[in-house]
Amino acid sequence: MLRILFVTFCILIPFAGTTQETPDTPGTIEQSQPMTLDVMAEIIAALDPEALRRGPTFEFVVQDVPVIVITDPRADRMRAMVPIRSAEGLSAEELTRLMQANFDTALDARYAIAQGRLWGVFIHPLSPLEPGQFVSGLAQTVNVALTYGQTYSGGASVFGGGDSNGIFQDLLDQLERNGQEL
To answer: What does the alpha-carbon distance between residue 149 and residue 17 come to, in Å, rounded to a whole number?
Structure first.
């Protein structure tokens, strides 16, 4: 888990300074240019130099996880997605857990089912997407795939008010009862 978080932060650091303060109004943030497919291609190439671009679609790998980004500039939308497993055989309990994670631990990524598969997805309007948001969304989407079946987490945070904190506490309690040190 620490490896996932470390890699997430290492990926985000180069894109942290993408907005600038305007010189005449200290403390205000200047909006960056709209996201374009060429800017997106540069970011993706920095993550995976072997990335493939087919028109508005990109295929690449992050932490051994295949990622597909599909864009539609006319509709001003983008979707990053990673395949997790077949949706066949998902139990009611598993589907409930996925929905709980969508509420509090998946963050900006989501679990979704389409075409008979379970996916991790990040969906956002294209033009207002900041480079740091894009990278963060990709990292969270990869993380929901890597943590599937365990913590179902998009990253280090848990957005309060959901069920996951109680589930994590139950797991910790059970480990302690079994005599395992944390």
So the answer is: 34
How many C-beta atoms lie closer than 10 Å to residue 176's C-beta? 11
The H or E element that residue 177 is part of is helix 164-177
pTM of the predicted protein model:
0.72
User: Rg for the chain (alpha carbons), in Å?
Assistant: 18
Query: Which residue, among 109, 107, 108, 105, has the nearest Cα to 121 in the 3D structure?
Result: 109
Q: Residues 22-66: pLDDT tens digits?
A: 344 444 334 467 899 999 999 999 999 999 999 999 999 999 999
pLDDT tens per residue, range 129-154: 999 999 999 999 999 999 999 999 98
Please name the amino acid found at residue 72: D
DSSP string, 48-104: -TT-EEETTEEEEEETTEEEEEEEETTTTEEEEEEEEEESTT--HHHHHHHHHHHHH
Instruction: Please name the amino acid found at residue 179.
Output: G
